[in-house]
Amino acid sequence: MTGPDDSGIDGIVEDPNGDFAAPGTVQGTIDRARHYREQVLSSIPGLLVHRGGRVLHCNRPAAQLLGYATPEEVLALPGVLALVSEDAAFAERQAYEQCLAGVTREDVRRIKRQRADGGVQWFDQLLEPVDWGGAPAVLETLAQVRPQTGYTQMPHQWQLLQAAIDAMPNGVLMLDRDIKMEGANSEFLRLWDYPPGLFPPGTPMDVMLTYNHQRGDYGDVPCGPIVAELASRFLVRCVINAERHVPNGRILDIRTAPRADGGYVVTHVDITDRKRIENELREAKERAETILKELRETQQQLIVQEKMASLGQLTAGIAHELKNPLNFVNNFAELSGELLDELLALLGPLDDRMNAADRADAEDLTASLQSNLRKIADHGRRADNIVKSMLEHSRGGGGEWQTADMNALVDEALALSYHAVRAQDRGFNTELERRFDPAVGALNLVPQDVSRVLVNVFTNAFYALRKRQKTDTEPDYRPRLTVSTVDCGGTVEIRIRDNGTGMTPAVIAKLFTPFFTTKPTGEGTGLGLSLSYDIVVHQHRGRFDVSSVENDHAEFTITLPRAIPAVSLGERRKT
Amino acid sequence: MTLGILVVDDEPDIEDLFRQRFRAELRTGQLALHFASSAEQALECLASGLQPEAVLVLSDINMPGMSGLDLLERLRSELPTVPVVMVTAYGDTENRQRALEIGATDLVTKPVDFAALKKLVNSVIARKTAA
Predict the structure, then answer these.
(1) What is the pTM of this model?
(2) Chain B residues touching residue A324 (CB < 8 angstroms)
(3) Which CATH class is domain A402-573?
(4) Which chain regions cross the lipid bilayer (chain B) (predicted)?
(5) Which of A46, A242, A411, B78 sits at 20 to 30 Å (Cα–Cα) from A551?
(6) Buried b (16+ CB within 10 A) or exposed e, A302-328
(7) Fold of A149-270
(8) CATH numbers and ranges of domains, chain B
(9) pLDDT one-digit tens code per residue, A316-356
(10) What ipTM score was computed for the predicted complex, to two decimals?
């Protein structure tokens, strides 16, 4: 049974392998119809519709071009980026996002896609924004790379060369001796994001560079000089002449190799990943170094804290042991005085029997004895006071954690210390400057102990001011104490600066050591700052910093954290 | 009448100190002092009966062997009527609180202020005789 339609199709569809059933039979008709469909399909470009990476539609040619048996297999992929090799993912994502945002590119992109079998294939791509199911989507058209008209007229060997450089993993640009383009491969087009066909062979280099400038590669700079400068780089031989960031986010390593005929082969290696890894490594190294530095600092702090803690324990032990002998020294000294008085009372009636000289001697001796006993008692009491402050030092504050207004606390301590020093020396006067930051507000702390620290530091400052005032030869010296509080977010700073005698580095080094004092014997126990350090650093987890220039100033900075860990190291020190 | 006081301390010089400090009271026969160099010895003394009977015990806390606080605990259960005053170098609130919790009448810190101690002894004895 033959009809006009059948013969018409038979005329179009050739039987390439002689596989079809005989023409004129039903089967033969069906075979031919199928074959014709295959032919039509092969000439239709692949179409993909996707949004946010999710593939919404894939036509049969697209599946075939990408090496998949059915469009369903493509739809089943985790996303459209599964088709993109990793080194191209960034550029593709950017292109998709732009398209989704409604930007239509007029030109074709030369891209590569990963096939189902893992191979890489070059395509020419068009991206268009479309409406898909009421929302914007990306319509991606993929076509197999066709030989350009220019290339088809090239001699066979040129075509072979083109195929060879297209297969290379790096971008290749051939320039002749006049710096005109002779050829380029697909990778070159992809790396630079040049539409295929934009630069036919014979395009001068500066045209390409001007194109780059126009699309904004070089930023907002005058065109002439930058193009001239870049073009001159191609004349430098055998060196890494550029490391370029291109607009699609990639970093290229560009090298020029001269050819015997005076032309150049310029290779472009994509070093984005290497750079990224290098950056990551550098960042990791920096992070590790920062952590190491922090660890070292913490270690240092711990060592100091531990040292101070064991010193405190030792101090407590010594103090307790000293209390017993002191008990005897003080009591026996006092008692001996009483006994001596009683003895003198007993001997009183005998005074008359002695001659005047002996009586004078005896009175002298008893007076010396009594004065000695008083001295023993006095020094005993002094020792007792030292022991008391040692114990106070080791015990830490028995005060309670409370929320207290920092500025009020500082002001109160300042007033207290100033009155105390004025009570000692009526003639002393100093300029006081308060710079209180109202943002400091209330802090959780042991007010009793922090107040002790502040009084301590203020008292020392007044001492230094008095000392300089007394010894200073310059008549225009004006003592001045500046107290400032600063809110630093997570911490609060209290700065106490005096323009007194200051300290030498040697003194600063020993400043927080128990029993270290620069005051004359009997005036200081050398425990004040040691105790203050304990309170600030151990109890309140703060910092205690000192800076000073001798005969210029001394500045103490106390930093207290707003949030303090519940268990502080200092608590272990309870005796 | 002579009132006995038992002083418990591991320091031997404490005897001289107390005898001299209370020499007036001792001379007049108002007081009699007994000494024990450890808590164990103190318990022995009290068990064997002291003449005159101790109406007040003054005890150190830190002693080798049984501590003053242990002694205090024993005395609270064995001789609940005899007041015990602790004498110690450890005058911190923690020790004070513990001693008072266990049942000490008072706590005196070293170096001992004998004027205050005498007042305390007198008040304890006055309370004791009044009762």
Answers:
(1) 0.46
(2) 11, 89, 110
(3) alpha beta
(4) none
(5) A411
(6) eeebeebbebbeebbeebbebbbebbb
(7) Beta-Lactamase (3.30.450)
(8) 3-130 (3.40.50.2300)
(9) 778 778 888 888 888 898 889 888 888 888 887 777 777 88
(10) 0.76
